[in-house]
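Quick start: read one record
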Amino acid sequence: MRILTALILVLSISACVQVQNDIAPAESQLVISSSFERDISLDANSTYAFTPLQKSENLPVLSDITDEIEMYFNAKGYKQVLASEQPTFHIGFILEHEDDLSDEQLSETFGLNPGLPNLPNLEKGTLLMFVLDGDNQSFVWRGAAQGFILKDTTEEERDYRLKTIIYSMLNQFDNK
């Protein structure tokens, strides 16, 4: 009888265990894909410059992206120079909305498609980043991040999310 009572007690305690479901909401999903084309030797004397692609746009977020990329590479010890100073590598990025760049176009033109699914009532955005060899302008690395555009976020949440995306992408380049 004691064994039966002990068994019931153990089963009742184990039946009370709650498991929290930590699945993130769909709108916070982020998918990153990257590809190395060839190696590049980077050291403490490495320099970088931005490509002129993002200079034609006047969106505040492009300046924020540039600032985060600068902070990342400066923390690694790389020095930013002008493109005319023959940097070790060039870094470029493009920010696109799903209405301007479909997944098919992304695959065809950039060679990558992170594969974030289309969901109703959510708009998808894509950040493309690439590194070009400073000597011959050939692709060294390319990365693409896709996420849903969150409109109801605070400035702090937006800044944190942007930094997380950029650092996650650049870690794939710098930690090959």
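The helical segments are 2-15, 60-75, 103-110, 155-174.
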